[in-house]
């Protein structure tokens, strides 16, 4: 028996069943706490406040490589994103392809954030843009004051510098003091049209589908991790948790299908049914897979990118990220 375990996560269709009680943990109880991931991550990484937690995949990998992680992961991936649409460039700098970013100054909220790790890795591996050929500045996107959650130790050839803490990447981009931004959210000057800023990939969906067809990878952003002391004390816990998360994800699938096939639209999206069908045509019926083997290629790529970008202190094997009792999933 596990008793009550605190579980910090964003409330999404993948976790909703824990909040409604539709999915329960066999032999115990998960007490879900709905929190924004930017709040969860520092509380988990610095103080290990939660028994089970959603975590940045990159931050977890860096901590693991440095031997300072109090958590061990499950192959459960609560956030995934291709991120081709997360690259914003000045329209007046002649940046029409990834290679045009060579020698440019690119802003990103944190160099170690998972979205940026994937973007740099994909642009290098699939488009030939060495991440060391780009100068990076870090700081708050639309709000000033953001700092790296994890101290950086830049490697050879890397140029990574924080901006003035009173500045924002959005303001620098709008004034033309930097050439591009890579960020999970859009810069305000892109949304309001106040500066000549556009996406690097005008048809990001087509580019992402081509990338998936070539690689088979749907990039992982966040994973689930458990306090290591808990799984060491209870050898059955990791397996029971994994089973519960699969059931919760499957409940999310069912809700999505019900919404897509409803006679009256539950969301203000007129082509929801077609969208679900097109997603499954491109990515497969199980388009949000859990388990180690189904995600091996993505995990290997993230480990490779993290080490190449001088984030991981050592090369980490994909199997090291997870409790060994769930590696056969």
TrEMBL record:
Q: Can you name the source organism?
A: Ancylobacter aquaticus
**Superkingdom per UniProt:** Bacteria
Name of the molecule in the record: 4,5-dihydroxyphthalate decarboxylase
Q: Which SUPFAM superfamilies match?
A: Periplasmic binding protein-like II (SSF53850)
């Amino acid at each position: 028996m596990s008793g009550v375990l605190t579980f910090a996560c964003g409330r999404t269709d993948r976790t909703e069943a824990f909040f409604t009680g539709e999915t329960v943990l066999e032999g115990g109880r998960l007490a879900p706490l709905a929190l924004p991931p930017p709040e969860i991550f520092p509380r988990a990484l610095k103080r290990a406040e939660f028994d089970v937690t959603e975590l940045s995949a990159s931050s977890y990998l860096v901590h693991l490589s440095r031997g300072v992680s109090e958590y061990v992961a499950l192959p459960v991936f609560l956030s995934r994103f291709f991120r081709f649409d997360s690259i914003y460039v000045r329209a007046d700098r002649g940046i029409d392809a990834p290679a045009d970013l060579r020698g440019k100054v690119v802003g990103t909220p944190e160099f170690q954030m998972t979205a940026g790790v994937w973007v740099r890795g994909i642009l290098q591996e699939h488009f030939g843009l060495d991440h060391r050929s780009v100068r990076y500045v870090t700081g708050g996107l639309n709000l000033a004051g953001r700092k790296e959650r994890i101290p950086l130790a830049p490697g050879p050839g890397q140029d990574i510098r924080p901006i003035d803490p009173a500045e924002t990447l959005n303001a620098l981009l709008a004034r033309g003091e930097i050439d591009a931004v890579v960020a999970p959210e859009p810069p305000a000057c892109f949304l309001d049209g106040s500066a000549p800023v556009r996406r690097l990939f005008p048809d990001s969906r087509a580019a992402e589908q081509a990338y998936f067809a070539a690689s088979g990878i749907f990039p992982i952003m966040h994973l689930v991790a458990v306090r290591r002391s808990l799984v060491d004390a209870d050898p059955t816990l990791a397996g029971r948790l994994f089973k519960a998360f699969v059931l919760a994800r499957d409940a999310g699938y069912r809700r999505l299908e019900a919404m897509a096939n409803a006679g009256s639209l539950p969301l203000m999206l007129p082509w929801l049914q077609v969208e679900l069908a097109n997603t499954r045509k491109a990515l497969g019926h199980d388009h949000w897979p859990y388990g180690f083997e189904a995600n091996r290629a993505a995990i290997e790529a993230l480990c490779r990118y993290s080490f190449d970008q001088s984030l991981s202190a050592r090369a980490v094997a994909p199997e090291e990220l997870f409790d060994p009792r769930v590696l056969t999933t």
